[in-house]
Specification:
- The complex is a heterodimer.
- Chain A is α+β, with helices and mostly antiparallel strands.
- Helix content of chain A is 40%, strand content 20%.
- Chain A has eleven helices and eleven strands.
- In chain A, strands 1-5-2 form a three-stranded antiparallel β-sheet. In chain A, strands 6-7-8 form a three-stranded mixed β-sheet, with helices on both faces. Chain A has a three-stranded antiparallel β-sheet with strand order 9-11-10.
- In chain A, β6 and β7 form a beta hairpin.
- In chain A, α1 crosses α11, α7 packs across α9 and α10 packs across α11.
- Chain A is globular, with a radius of gyration of 20 Å.
- Helices cover 39% and strands 17% of the residues of chain B.
- By secondary structure, chain B is α+β, with helices and mostly antiparallel strands.
- Chain B has one domain: K homology (KH) domain (GMP Synthetase, Chain A, domain 3, 2-Layer Sandwich).
- In chain B, strands 1-2-3 form a three-stranded mixed β-sheet.
- Classes of the chains: A alpha+beta, B alpha+beta.
Chain lengths: 308, 90
């Protein structure tokens, strides 16, 4: 996975920008704070925060920790602890264990599916991607060891089977007729495609139901394999994702054109992380405009600006 | 299943089936899952789970619960029910 690096006024803003660029939720990303703004007079800060992030090659165990820190970390840095944590690898959180107090189960899946389409999120396990564990990850697996005594991981095939089984059962409970097939998107990604009539309700307004199904599926996977899963498994219903992506690209290109012509920034409606990623990617490929994001999940929005 | 289309409480069969399915998929004790409709004040579907499983259906900051609600409402819409509230009870 590639790293992205973003600068902003605060660590939090830089983090949010980086996450947007990646199109994933914080839980699915590996973050490193490269630089913090220096505290100046009267609570002002000087300098910029720089954050480096990439999609986690493996689930991160210390979400809780990281989250807490980030929450507390917006503008009022709590002196020492925040500083210490920032020394580089945000991931190497000492308190990692506290994430999983036995019910670790509920944590990770809450990684809003939205993003990286399910699969690849929750736990660290170097079984397959050992080579990727950079310094920032070293501390993680050790910390995670404690909570899940018997380590249970899914291969990509098991991962796919788990999601597929879940989806089939759901379609049945829904009383819908559907065919389900599995698409190989790339080496690490499979898409479970559900096709049939009357699936609109399962997609929901703006794909919200699909998103929710994804969320539950992730949770189910995580419960079954708390130590991690290989690959990513996405769910698409009635071709929704494809259509959505296509429509978003066109929409983004149109907005980009308008912003370039008028020179005036446009704020888009709130979107999920993967949708924002599509918008960012599309617009950043267009001359004369750039993007940023504002607001908090789930109401985070892309802002399209004339390039300066 | 699609023959369920009257709109009285108790007709939310699809929603109940879906909620049971989702809850069972998530808990440690699937036998402890039960979903009941309560029509006393608008339609409410109460999802009962075993004591220890509450956290599993709620999730961190209610994310799992909200996802379940979203899917449950979609199923209720199929039953012709809108504005259903879905509660988790242990």
């Amino acid at each position: 996975m590639e790293w992205v690096e973003m600068s902003a006024r605060t660590v939090k803003e830089a983090t949010d920008l980086a996450l947007d660029r990646l199109g994933v939720d914080e839980e699915d990303a590996e973050l490193q704070v490269l630089e913090e703004p220096q505290p100046g007079l009267f609570g002002r800060t000087r300098g910029k925060a720089r954050v480096r992030a990439r999609v986690s090659p493996r689930p991160q165990p210390q979400k809780q920790e990281r989250r807490e820190r980030r929450r507390g970390g917006g503008r009022s840095r709590r002196g020492g602890s925040a500083g210490a944590a920032r020394s580089g690898a945000v991931d190497a959180a000492p308190a990692a264990g506290e994430d999983d107090d036995g019910d670790g189960t509920i944590d990770s899946p809450s990684n809003d599916d939205t993003s990286s389409e399910s699969g690849a999120s929750p736990r660290p396990r170097r079984r397959r991607r050992g080579s990727r564990s950079g310094a920032s990850q070293e501390a993680a697996p050790a910390a995670a060891e404690g909570d899940n005594v018997e380590s249970k991981t899914f291969t990509l095939d098991e991962h796919v089977a788990c999601v597929e089984g879940f989806v089939r059962g759901l379609v049945d409970a829904f009383g819908a007729e559907a065919t389900i097939r599995i698409d190989e998107v790339d080496e690490d990604t499979r898409e479970i495609k559900i096709e049939g009539d009357d699936l609109g309700l399962l997609i929901g307004p703006r794909g919200l139901t699909l998103q929710a199904i994804h969320e539950v599926a992730r949770t189910v996977v995580y419960r079954a394999a708390p130590d991690g899963q290989d690959g990513r498994v996405r769910i698409d219903i009635g071709g929704y994702r494809e259509r959505r992506r296509h429509a978003l690209e066109q929409f983004a290109a149109k907005i980009a054109g308008e912003v370039a012509d008028s020179g005036r920034a446009r704020t888009l409606e709130p979107m999920s992380p993967p949708d924002r990623k599509v918008v960012h990617d599309t617009i950043n490929g267009i001359e004369g405009v750039r993007t940023t994001s504002e607001g908090e999940e789930p109401r985070r929005r892309v802002v399209v600006l004339p390039a300066d | 299943m699609s023959d369920v289309d009257d709109t009285t409480a108790g007709s939310a069969d699809t929603a109940i089936a879906v909620l049971e399915y989702l809850a069972r998929a998530l808990v440690a004790d699937p036998d402890g899952v039960r979903v009941e409709a309560d029509d006393s004040n608008g339609l409410t579907l109460n999802v009962y789970v075993s004591d220890g499983d509450m956290g599993r259906v709620i999730g961190k900051r209610g994310r799992v619960a909200n996802a379940i609600r979203t899917v449950g409402r979609a199923a209720a819409a199929k039953d012709g029910e809108t504005g259903v509230s879905i509660e988790f009870v242990d």
